[in-house]
Specification:
- This protein is an alpha+beta fold.
- Helix content is 34%, strand content 14%.
- The chain has 3 helices and 3 strands, in the order βααββα.
- It has a 3-stranded antiparallel sheet with strand order 1-3-2.
- A hairpin with a 2-residue loop joins strand 2 and strand 3.
- The protein is elongated and about 50 Å long.
- The termini are far apart.
- About 13% of the residues have low confidence.
């Protein structure tokens, strides 16, 4: 049973969007720690799949995980 003091979920914070199925470009940028223009550029290049819902582009959270996996590079700390 929910508490009377329950705080509504705010999707504008990166912590809150982790339970969401899809996020807008700003939320995706916050999750990845990049500028929103970087996300927009990756969508326009076809490197990141997005869906338009109404006037807003949304990116599935699973797509963000897949994008990170596809672009993962091993970093040698000695370089």
């Amino acid at each position: 049973m929910p508490s009377d003091n329950a705080v509504p979920l705010q999707l504008s914070s990166p912590q809150a969007v982790t339970g969401a199925l899809a996020v807008n470009l700003q939320e995706a940028a916050e999750m990845l720690g990049v500028h929103v223009n970087t996300i927009r550029r990756e969508v326009n290049r076809g490197n990141l799949a997005a869906v338009r819902i109404g006037r807003v582009l949304r990116i599935r959270v699973a797509e963000l995980h897949a994008y990170l996996k596809r672009n993962e590079k091993r970093v040698n700390p000695m370089e």
